[in-house]
Amino acid sequence: MKKILLVSFILLQSFSYFVLDDPPTFGPKTNKGVISNDDIDEASGLAVGINNQGVLWTHNDSGGENRIFAFDTNGVSVGTYYLQGVENRDWEDICIGPGPDENLHYIYIGDVGDNDGDYKEKFIYRIVEPTIGERFNFVDTISEVSKITFTYPDNDRDAETIFLDPLSKDLYIVGKRDTKVRLYKLSFPQSTTETFEAELAVKFTLPNDPESDTPNNYITGGDISFDGNEILLKSYQNIYYWNRVDGESISETISNEPAILAYETEPQGEAICWKNDSENGYYTLSEEKVTFNDITFNFPAQLYYYPRKSNVTGIEKKRTPNRFILKQNYPNPFNPTTTISYQLLEDQEVSLTVYNNQGKVISVLVDKKQNSGIYNSVFDAKDLPSGIYYYKLILQNYSNTKKMLLLK
Hints:
Blueprint: H1 17-21, E1 30-34, E2 43-48, E3 55-60, E4 67-72, E5 77-83, E6 93-97, E7 106-111, E8 122-128, E9 138-142, E10 146-151, E11 159-164, E12 171-175, E13 181-186, E14 196-197, E15 199-204, E16 221-224, E17 230-234, E18 239-243, H2 250-254, E19 259-261, E20 269-274, E21 282-286, E22 289-292, E23 295-298, E24 302-306, E25 324-326, E26 337-344, E27 348-356, E28 361-370, E29 373-380, E30 387-394, E31 399-406
Parallel strand pairs: 5-9, 10-14
Antiparallel strand pairs: 1-24, 2-3, 3-4, 4-5, 6-7, 7-8, 8-10, 11-12, 12-13, 13-15, 16-17, 17-18, 18-19, 20-21, 21-24, 22-23, 25-26, 26-29, 27-28, 27-30, 30-31
């Protein structure tokens, strides 16, 4: 929940030409108001209502009561719902999307926090999004709560981020306390009667994240747009953005290099969500309680909004298909040979070059025109020392570089 450990590491990714070339722009932020409900003091997740236009949902994290809160886009309290028969062990994120019934919208609450790795089983609670109507400052109870129980395939880890792919209905969890950021998948339909094991979907890296244990860059929240095309992940000091190309899986998209969006750090900013309308900016929200050196400080929780300024990759714009796909070398780490694979979707002049970490050319693997298709190039490092190397694919209109690790 409140500690942080992040690293730079080797990136497993496919490449989307349009994503990195022309990301959208957002901001500057607008202050929408102080959260008026004093019971919301450790807001850890945020979601925009579907059944209830102009309503946002949030919850408190560990030690809070088993309730979710509704408030409007100016931070004014609308109402509170208690979830019957469940507890808030460490609720860390909330999202809204489809589920078992095609005619309904569901709220998912992730009880996935675990600072010390004490709990093998993690939970995601699923409820039908209630329709609030004209009520105001009400308190109600939701009795029909489904419980999704899962374990991780590796260890009992901490997480603060869940989101739902609206195209596949698969749930995703982003690990927090990892030396590599890990994305886990709960495939639809998620069982509510048996404990099952999450799938480790991909490990990926993020720019601007340190390789030390500092309270800045753990991933604390995330969201995906209603059409499934745009993904946000938030750390304490950065917001990362991906644009999903048609046909890509979430794992493939999130393995690409993200854009870094406008964000002004908040006292304990953990929550983010898309506005999900024609404008499609994003909201952020901070906790009120911040503990530093065993002293707790209280700050008013402000709701902020970052409007979209550029619609280059907006959800209303037709998406540009991939020009090529560059994959991570395999195996990685390697000794002494590894294969670099890439796919061209049109004829291209291709240059594929390997560099050491000082930028010196080690090997030119490809330097010629190639037809569309899938290519594999073998790099032999038998005469090279262990270390990090880079391979760069250059095409007519773009280039992409990835890291690989030689271990002898």
